[in-house]
Request: fold
Amino acid sequence: MTTRFADPPLTTRFAPSPTGLLHLGHAASALAGWHAARAAGGRFVLRLEDIDPQRCRPDHAQAILVDLAWLGLDWDGAVRVQSAHLAEYRAVLDVLRRRGLLYECFCSRADIAREAKAAASAPHCTPDEAPLYAGTCRGLAPGRRRQRIAAGEPYMLRLDMRAALDSLADADRQLQAQDAATGLHWRCRPERFGDVVLARRDVPASYHLCVTHDDWRQGVTLVVRGEDLRPATDVHRLLQALMGWTPPAWLHHHLLRDRHGRRLAKRDGARTLRAMRADGMTASEVRTLAGFA
Ligand code: GLU
Reply:
């Protein structure tokens, strides 16, 4: 683990998942982070969030680097590739497990959706519109839990949200995150996500765990990303408090939308930077389209 500088340089990052080619929305996000860093004489680091072996592809990872360089972006230090750091995520899980903040969850997706529906008195969805986990496996008797693990039943690791919040030192009880645009702090409410998954069945890590760990590990002081990820920041702030990682500030920018008002998304076939280049557009024209003249 690294030592943080007493007065770290402003450091931003771009952290795409190589599940497809970059589109204009990605370009806007990367440019926002890059400009913020360069304007302050700071650092801009790059990270490939590729822990999902089903969805991420090495050729997409390679294409992302080529497209960013074509766009005129440079980055500091080596690109961090998450799949090469699973041992670091495991070490964080060990710390949380020793504190009694994790538990094995054997529920399938279908179990979770069914139970969330059945819990009529509580909200059914997390802020990112996933079914809210009802906590079924939290109360499993230790003997039964051991039996199921020994029988080879697959499981994920969840954070016991209540226990995690209760374990915070008094100074951290009022969890707050700083909005870099206004300088104001907002009150974080990670409990709206319930017992979040910190390690998946197939990978000993999860988005929330890796993104928070790596922002700390890469010395990121300002997270620039889309407003769709704004709610998840509350969970990230909690993990930082639990692990004693210095929190960055956050700048959640508006998302670019198509002419029907829909946000650009790979799955909806948003036009890629690659296609724009093939059509003869210059990098300068693409930067202008992304809002950076
Ligand atoms: N890897 C995430 C994505 O491509 C971004 C994570 C983040 O910026 O925090 O959507």
Q: What stands out?
A: Residues 1-6 have pLDDT under 50 and may be disordered. Strands lie at 11-14, 43-48, 80-81, 102-105, 156-159, 176-178, 185-187, 197-199, 222-226, 249-253.
